[in-house]
Specification:
Number of strands of chain A: 17
Shape of chain A: elongated
Oligomer: heterodimer
Largest sheet of chain A: 9 strands, mixed
Low-confidence stretches of chain B: none
Largest interface: A-B, 54 and 38 residues
Number of strands of chain B: 3
Structural class of chain A: alpha+beta
Order of helices and strands of chain B: HHEHEE
Bound molecules: zinc ion
Low-confidence stretches of chain A: none
Mean pLDDT of chain A: 92
Helix content of chain B: 25-40%
Radius of gyration of chain A: 31 Å
Helix content of chain A: 40-55%
Number of domains of chain A: 3
Distance between the termini of chain A: 88 Å
């Protein structure tokens, strides 16, 4: 059977680090980059006799993500121990949720060039992260830092509903948007706060049976995910078509440099985790009050914002897509639009100049620190012709950089347009006197000749005149 | 009550999962012990548990939470005092990385 007659079936297990200040079960900081093992205590290093206590905020984030992905919230939930030995796991078990995960049976909608599609969410459960292992070349040993041990994660398990790398990327992008709108995670795939294990199988296109799947680990970027899916699907089809063998269910480690994968040792793959309920952690009963509190705090999400921006501001779809791609950018836009009363202009500054400066400075929307107040003042100054468009861009650079007051900055740098009628008239008269040929040409009907005179006025006033106003005044003077 | 026979494969698997290696003598002993334990646990099957929720906690307590506030300082000295070997402020363990 030719390769094109196969389809790839993909499901994702996405681990997301929650944005809490402290770990899942103890008061240790989750801050990144601390001295090795400085954010540790008896709880997160699994000392006998220590007692874990659940972080309420982590629970709230997990439920909020579940609500945003249309899940049923499990009103009576528990934690279980997943037993395995590895140096990154000081307790010899990871606290996770097997039997009663906090959220179940949800979905998200993705958009790809081939249209909209719902991707099912099988479940979302809470669990703790492991420590970090570093290979020490000098001694050929491994060094362990437990600062990440016990950091709260949620694992979002999708249904096997995706069929291409494109759909997987759209799905992850959708999760990233939801999580960042909620403030539940900073979602950096590259920095490890969002990690995905990809389950891949192949089957004849149109079949409703599932092939044997392989779980791919160690995928560190969006681009790597697409390469990994292509590579693994090809490997499986080749095995079936050329080697006439069946696909073996296994965990494989993706090597993005070699663009190939290798089966992990079967011992590591031994999926006998002997789960049992954690006796140290009491069950969770999600009360109506807690659920109401979380619902109350849900933000307006991207889709809802997009609809409203169309209705309320009449913005083009392209503008809306950029503005709503990030909650912070959307907030700056809404505030600036309100303060300036000029939504389209507010949008232009944010999707053109702001994006350009962010790109130059390699910054993200979360790094933006200028106030909507100052941007709104600048927009009004430009709209009222108090500064030229070139000067407005120069002022914006300063606002972007230092959040300075645009009026004070324009005054200090001499960028305000001269609206002083006397000064303008004097410059216009001087222009006519000094350029008799241009003046005569204009009077003879060559309208374009006025350009030279406007140029003279602008130069005379060091660029601080309004060219339109200067042109009108010159035309008036030349008629007489 | 049924007799539980623990075969060599089961013992092999338990050795892998528990990261233990037993001598031949210990294996024989373990087989006998495990068989006896399982038979003992079998007695629970004599009870009718139809409609009884599995119990995971002894006390009727739920919803014990903490607020998301940092309460712990630098715990590295205490944590590392338990390390059999250490280097650069970290636990030192046999290498775990594959080639
Ligand atoms: Zn701790």
């Amino acid at each position: 059977m030719p390769y094109e007659q196969y389809e790839t079936v993909i499901g994702l297990e996405t681990h997301v680090e929650l944005a809490t200040k402290t770990k899942l079960f103890c008061g240790c900081s989750t801050e990144f980059g601390g001295k090795p093992n400085s954010h540790t205590c008896p709880v997160c290093t699994g000392m006998p006799g220590s007692l874990p206590v659940l972080n309420r905020q982590a629970l709230k984030y997990a439920i909020a993500v579940g609500l945003a992905t249309h899940c049923e919230i499990t009103r009576h939930s528990k934690f279980d121990r997943k037993n395995y030995f590895y140096p990154d796991n000081p307790q010899n078990y990871q606290i996770s949720q097997l039997y009663l995960p906090i959220c179940r049976n949800g979905w998200v909608e993705i958009s790809t060039p081939s249209g909209k599609k719902k991707i099912g969410i099988h479940e979302i459960h809470m669990e703790e992260d492991a420590g970090k292992l570093i290979h020490d070349e000098w001694t050929d040993s491994s060094l362990v830092d437990y600062n990440r041990s016990g950091v709260p994660l949620i694992e979002i398990v999708s249904e096997p509903d995706m069929r291409s790398g494109e759909e997987v990327t759209a799905y992850l992008e959708k999760l990233r948007l939801i999580l960042s709108y909620l403030g539940a995670s900073d979602c950096k795939l590259e920095e490890g706060s969002m990690r995905a294990d990809v389950n891949i199988s192949v089957r004849p296109a149109g079949s409703s049976l599932f092939g044997t799947r392989c779980e791919m680990k160690n995928i560190n970027s969006f681009k790597a995910i697409e390469r990994c899916i292509r590579g693994e699907a090809e490997r499986q089809i080749e095995r079936i078509e050329e080697d006439k063998k069946e696909v073996v269910q296994e965990t494989r480690r993706w090597d993005d440099n070699k663009e190939s994968s290798k089966a992990m040792r079967s011992k590591e793959d031994a999926k006998d985790y002997r789960y049992f309920p954690d006796p140290d952690l009491v069950p969770i009963d999600v009360s109506d009050e807690l659920l109401a509190e979380i619902k109350e705090e849900q933000p307006e999400f991207q889709e809802e914002k997009a609809v409203r921006y169309k209705e309320e501001y009449g913005l083009p779809d392209g503008d809306i897509r950029v503005l709503t791609s990030d909650k912070r950018l959307a907030e700056i836009f809404e505030e600036t639009a309100k303060l300036s009363g000029l939504p389209k202009k507010a949008s232009n500054w944010l999707i053109v100049e702001t994006q350009q400066l962010m790109k130059e400075k390699n910054e993200e929307p979360k790094d933006l620190h200028f106030s909507p107040e100052h941007l709104a003042v600048l927009i009004k100054m430009a709209d009222e012709n108090k500064v030229s468009s070139g000067a407005a861009r120069q002022i914006f650079n300063a606002v972007y950089e230092n959040d300075c007051d645009p009026e004070a900055y324009a005054k200090e740098k001499g960028l305000l347009i001269v609206h002083d009628e006397g000064a303008l008239r004097a410059a216009a008269e001087k222009a006519i006197d000094s350029n008799p040929k241009a003046a005569a040409d204009y009077r003879a009907g060559k309208e374009k000749a006025i350009g030279a005179l406007v140029g003279f006025v602008m130069k005379e006033l060091h660029g601080k005149a309004d060219p339109g106003q200067a042109g009108q005044l010159l035309a008036g003077l030349l008629k007489n | 009550m049924s007799e539980h026979v623990i075969d060599d494969d089961t013992i092999d698997n338990i050795e892998i999962l528990a990261k233990l290696s037993l001598t031949d003598e210990e294996r024989l002993q373990a087989k006998a012990d495990l068989s006896e334990m399982l038979s003992y646990i079998d007695r629970l099957n004599e009870l009718d548990t139809q409609g009884v929720e599995p119990m995971s906690h002894v006390f009727k307590v739920s919803n014990v939470f903490r607020e998301d506030v940092v309460t712990n300082g630098d715990g590295s000295a205490d944590t590392l005092s338990n390390a059999p070997a250490r280097k650069d402020g970290m636990y030192q363990v046999p290498r775990t990385f594959e080639e």
